[in-house]
């Protein structure tokens, strides 16, 4: 509902300040009169005209009794009860203004009257005081003396009641069986009670609140609601943001049953709840916003701000300020937003008492709501709202009475008035000058709305008479009107249209050249409103074939003439062998569909043919199709022109049409005769005519085969015709359309034509024609599956499918062992051909089904390269073939044979392959690699064998040879290309030494590293003085790399001693290695400096962390209040109980026993951890997390301070004795550590250094071909949120 003001407010000018010294308003009660209580103890009585009728009481009495805190008027508006802030009550006669009773002893003195309520019994009233007690007041008159007897219904010592609401019934419901109980609802601070006052006091229901905000206001409201043809009272109550509805019923035995209804969840806290009617409720939230709610759908209809009312609150009475404030803190907290006495409802109106005036809220009637939108010129919205009233879907409806038909008639009349108003307004405000587009847009906003609602109201007479006449005055409006009718005609919502409107409609669309729209409209129109001659002429001129067929069929019951017209268009180009245009193809398709509809009894393009015409139409169509010549036939026309034309146009679809038609021929003798006649004509036309392609001929015989295969077949076809077709399709001399002819013959056989042929002759002809799919079809019928393998291998288009076929035969159950054996033998015979076709699939096939015949397969593969491809696919898992090596019976000889072939055809992949292979012998493999001079592979195998020294010697030999080559190239002043090879071999050799040095002793390490160092320094000794720079510099760099690598495994003094023992350097040539030695010393100094810096940083971080941890643990807390947030009692009052006080970092304070009762403790003994009950419940947290790192501010606040009472706890010593001896963090230290982590976000330096050292050591230990090493999955550097903070840690507050 868009911007519809449901609620209207009026400020009632109740001005009394000029007449009496009344003071400020404090309470209001409304019946046929309006009573307002004031702060000076006066009760002012106004009538409905806002005139002051009575001023009850006096300021002197007000000074004695205090302000009026509650008012109540009885049902006949004859008595008024006043409750005062100091506890007194008075009863007044509203007719005479006399004081009838002054009640001072009905309840304990010193408490204010919060509520006073009349019941339906005029002698019975209920009051509620600020002590939380509820009293029943019985009024009697004995011997002319008026008395009042009081009875306590509920004592405030058992729970303070702050709201009461007796059940009031209207005059028409006074005989309702529930009224005899005089029900009363009471809301305390913890629960709801429903009691019956009559015939005896009885509690019928109690309902606890559950968790809620202690400051929220309890609310109660009764109303009689109709449900399931019964009217029963419903009690609505809430405290906070959830409204509960309770349905109260009385059963046959006289007992009362209370049933929970669907409750209402809100996003705001309520301070008032009021029923407008049984379906509409009005809610007032804590920020003084009114919410109008539909109770059944829970839809919010309107939200209104009423802050300008300046609503009067009853806080002072709930705090009992007039009697010294002697109320509980919990009741005073509830009273902060209490406005019970400031809001009153009567007769569908709600009165709000403001500080200066009274505001009245009521729902607008349905007419007022519609008129309100009309005044704002929101015509579509007004019609939509009125239609919702018409359909009974509107919410908060006021002013509509009577049964449904009467309500609809009233609303429909109003909608017709609005439609006329819309029409006149659109014509009146039409722009006289301007573009046509502007005028069209103007009428597009109005005319479609008028048309739509006229059709919804089923007022076609109004639409096509008065409305159409009005819009016809303007040509643009008339065009828009006619275009608006199109969607309703197409959806068959508008069938009956006057002849004049129909004529104008067709002319309008024809003028705008929207002929496709005209065709769609014609086929949905009533044919009696059309000029048939004119429409047929228009359709033929504009190629509207659907419309033309519809007019012929529906207007003249003529079904053959449209066919003749369409045949005349498509027959000439087909008979001449020309290709059809796109329009002619569309016409041919329409003709096929039209013939299919006629033969199936359906009308074209929509609906059905009348049942009495169906047999006649079928016969006419068959007679038309089997005509020997057309009506205007020339001498050159071929026989059966209509069937020939359809066969040439689309053979397959025409035969499908006939097949669908033949399905309906059961016991119709004449139809069966037509069926045989058409089949004979088809055979005569297609077999004797050479113009048809093999595909077309095959379609015919496939069609015949399906018809002959039916169990109730009555057709007769000469078998020799099938033999002729077989000869025609299997002609080996005709290579054209080979695939097409094979597919046609296959479809013919699958359709049941196999029974028409001799199978042996069919197989011979198929093999001669190379129809391998036909052969496969025949072999499969005879279960000769092994021969099908030959069919796949011979067919170049399907040879790859042979692997799946063999696998399926050998795997899928259902085939006999003999059949599987024959297929397996055939596959083994062609194994070489299969391997050459796809080595991977062949290897997978062998591994799956021939795992025990691997050696036999190898013997059959004579081609070495073919054998190499097969073994690589079989043994190398990187080829992607899923082979289970355990089930594969492959001996080490086979693996070694594959390795030898690999050395021949792909030597660069030998090492990578050896890393993934398993079943080979090292000695034999080493011999193979030595045979083919693969030194690198040989070194790898020796290292794997455990001969590290042997592997090192081979690598050293390779390095020395490359160094010699490099030296020669450099001395001859040529560009050296072997330096890169030297570097690569040196890196591999260093890696070999590093991998194995961890497991060797010191002499063994020196046996590896010193020969390597000597090999690198030897070229520098030969001619050090005349060595060119291109030779010296690279060698020095590589030698330094060796020294840096060996320094991790060989002590520095040993390295220097070995260098000095060298004869060359021992004779005064130390200057040549001075650079190497200085480089080693620089590396040592750098590492020493790095170690000292790291140690300093770690010590600084540790000192900073411990300082902040100590500061966080020792920081004190300041509670927000001095009472427990659960029991709402000051902790000083419970000092006599051995209970601890727990204070949280959020500022909330609790007794530890209260937290235990609310299950807010995790753990036992001294290590118990607490969670803040109030923060946890307000944030609606789920499970309490036990991890300290998941504690969030405002959700699960950890307890930081625990104070013990002055008297020692008897449990203290026992708990101390049971304390565990292990050291650990207590809850306060845990939270302090969490705050420290939040203060210094990011990863610590120690964690970074640890991660770096682990990564470096892991890389140094990685084997050359080890597949087990994997990257650290939990590395902190792989975290996408990792940030490197280079700034110093923040300073914490002391």
TrEMBL record:
Residues 1124-1176 form the RING-type domain. GO terms for cellular component: CORVET complex; early endosome; HOPS complex; late endosome. PROSITE patterns: WD_REPEATS_2 (PS50082), ZF_RING_2 (PS50089). The keyword Cell division does not apply. InterPro entries: Vps41/Vps8, Vps8_central_dom, WD40/YVTN_repeat-like_dom_sf, WD40_repeat_dom_sf, WD40_rpt, Znf_RING, Znf_RING/FYVE/PHD, Znf_RING_Vps8. GO terms for molecular function: zinc ion binding. It comes from the Eukaryota. This is VPS8 subunit of CORVET complex. CDD domains: RING-H2_Vps8. WD repeats lie at residues 61-102. SMART domains: RING. GO terms for biological process: endosomal vesicle fusion; protein targeting to vacuole. Belongs to the VPS8 family. Keywords: Metal-binding, WD repeat, Zinc, Zinc-finger. It comes from Sarcophilus harrisii (Tasmanian devil). Residues 1200-1222 are annotated as: Disordered.
